[in-house]
Structures
1.
Amino acid sequence: QVQLQESGPRLVKTSETLSLTCAVSGDSAGGNYFWSWIRQPPGKGLEWIGYVSNGGSTNYNPSLKSRATVSVDTSTRQVSLILRSVTPTDTAVYFCARDAGRDFFDYWGQGTLVTVSS
Amino acid sequence: SYVLTQPPSVSVAPGETARITCGGNNIGSFGVQWYQQKPGRAPTLVIYYDNDRPSGIPERFSGSNSGNTATLTISRVEAGDEANYFCQLWDTSSGQFYVFGTGTEVTVL
């Protein structure tokens, strides 16, 4: 059973950098997978942030491209998100999710709430 | 950017049929997915490629997609179907790649 587990600080100060990690287990390490970060502000909808493939290629939502970096370490099976210069509008539940090359997400992490405050 | 519009809420009595729409420009030319999200939980895929169901999803869930509207249909609604539902498609032309709808809260009366 594929499992994804997000971790990282729950509180980040305004203008600082948000850093999260997603630990992956239970799937084939060499698969054609694309790992995304998706966020959901409290009471609102879902926003895709960006993805990284197992081969290291990346793409980002144009609205966040200048501040976000997504990376993967296939040896440790971890996917990372860095979001720079955060503001309170970046407060959200952050999910990691897997796309097996089929243009949709078949597995999601449970999500982690990150609050940005001064 | 590509926008997917859903009604904010749908109410349905147990045993009846719920229909949730997802509107977008020529959405019929895309493959559309639907996710169910219960409070405090991650989304779960219930329909992919317009009308395919992942294993474990009841046949009561079905989808259609044509023109400018995709629809998720839940037949014989049960109390456990109460959740938020989001549509999603893959669009590289807009640069957004994964586009989500605004979400619909389904209430079982």
2.
Amino acid sequence: DQQVKQNSPSLSVQEGRISILNCDYTNSMFDYFLWYKKYPAEGPTFLISISSIKDKNEDGRFTVFLNKSAKHLSLHIVPSQPGDSAVYFCAAARGSSNTGKLIFGQGTTLQVKP
Amino acid sequence: DGGITQSPKYLFRKEGQNVTLSCEQNLNHDAMYWYRQDPGQGLRLIYYSQIVNDFQKGDIAEGYSVSREKKESFPLTVTSAQKNPTAFYLCASSMLSTGNSPLHFGNGTRLTVT
């Protein structure tokens, strides 16, 4: 039972344009969501997070939007840069004390073309 | 520089042998975690520990064992009982006392069992 889904395995975007990565979840008990970025043969690095009490969180070029009624979140990268090319994982958790017990999506590979 | 060190980066074993993956952190984090990544899948939680000498099973603990004798160290043993041990293993840590603290990951160990 896949509680967190990233339905697009890959995304290709031109440099300077917007990248939009999507994530859906099924468990309404999730109240904290994160995005991680992963390069090959490395561990994931934390990008940005959002609590369920918010619907938007911004950090530089990265913005995460949360639509609780649709159980959907998205990561926007503007403008996209070639260095953003990586695998992006969304993850969800229940309760702040459980933020290490994350449920991850399958990942979306983003390619930003120069 | 603070961080999480996983060793070795690549590990090869024959079927039927137990193997131990090392994970050390100098971030003074309370909690440590082991995740497994398979191709096309998200990360899945194997075991986690929030305090020394205590640990809990994650979603896929069968065939694995852990110990937490020191705050800095959380080794994972892949036993011969694990049916599909070949995978990319990621260790992570987080602070528990600061609410929603994101995970910090090591660079992983790729285990191949033949």
3.
Amino acid sequence: EVVMTQSPATLSASPGERVTLSCRASQSFSNNLAWYQQKPGQAPRLLIYGASTRATGIPARFSGSGSGTEFTLTISSLQSEDFALYYCQQYNNWWTFGQGTKVEIK
Amino acid sequence: EMRLVASGGSLVQPGGSLRLSCTASGFTFSSFAMAWVRQAPGKGLEWVSGISGSGGSTYYGDSVRGRFSVSRDNSRNTLYLEMDNLRAEDTAVYYCAKTNVKVIPTYLDFWGQGTLVTVSS
């Protein structure tokens, strides 16, 4: 099983800040990685797939990068609606999710 | 507009059974593989099961293999999850989700709202 480890568990930031979330895989793979956003009481929403491709309707302030075992999600300028939980998921070898990073208001 | 409406969740005793349904609309259901993902209260996401667009191939996570069974009725645009021998650790919100192709694994591009399963005596 591919274990996905996200860091930090919680990230405190202010609106307008640039933030970077990390996701590390226990095994190397190319780009079969997705990022999802989840708000309280809602289903997850796809943000990024293929490690760096934004899903339909996702604002340009969200960007993804990485390959191998290290992946990142960057939000260039935090908006109020971006405070949420973020999960990475590998789909190279079945599916496994990271444990999530909570982005909270500082 | 795409919709995935999950239903069937309820309170069930340990060892009991339950069937979840997920009705799809707004897209060609048979063209896409589907998945079930669950989230225990206050916890992260866990993949449960997946099924190809035709229904001919099914896949399960280690924690549910042998107890859960996934199926689909493409004529009714409906995905199912039969859950047997339920345990307390199966308590979770169960989401159905759509992939972008007929085969898996791949990313999940649209999720339904989820249905709550509680396993308790």
4.
Amino acid sequence: GNSVTQMEGPVTLSEEAFLTINCTYTATGYPSLFWYVQYPGEGLQLLLKATKADDKGSNKGFEATYRKETTSFHLEKGSVQVSDSAVYFCALSEEEAAGNKLTFGGGTRVLVKP
Amino acid sequence: GAGVSQSPSNKVTEKGKDVELRCDPISGHTALYWYRQSLGQGLEFLIYFQGNSAPDKSGLPSDRFSAERTGGSVSTLTIQRTQQEDSAVYLCASSPWGGITDTQYFGPGTRLTVL
């Protein structure tokens, strides 16, 4: 079956540091890939997505490139802010017989200190 | 516009009781999903509705769990004879067409605590 593996946290950074969260996946076909973010006290929201190989998703200074050859979708941001403190989830969606549920990684908690 | 709404936001119940959780998807979205977020299991898919098609129930953990979607809109997740391991945050999401490139929009969740 499908699976998503992402680095365990927590990741603690200083403001303006570079952030990378690794994500790799296993899928039988050609999935779409997503990063969702959960800010403290808030619900899950889409951060960015990529729907085919070599696509780059970007939003709020975050970027991730869909790498089919390495089955990866690593999240990066060049200069983090305190407001980026959140839990980040990598996920994939692949059409199956009766639906296209999201399969999530375990989540990575990021704490940015001033 | 309005997002996905869920009620109640919190539910505390005693072991063995039945509970009903409600989800109002974004108007016009044909696909609706239920997930569960718990400390031990992370985010797990439970059930998926697409239009008038039969739901995909492959993620339901036991026959104590069931869900309905009435009129292609509101959905109710029912847990019968609740157990302590059912304690979790239950998330509902909707998407426009249910395609694999669709963004799923999540509600704020219902936190269920089974005593």
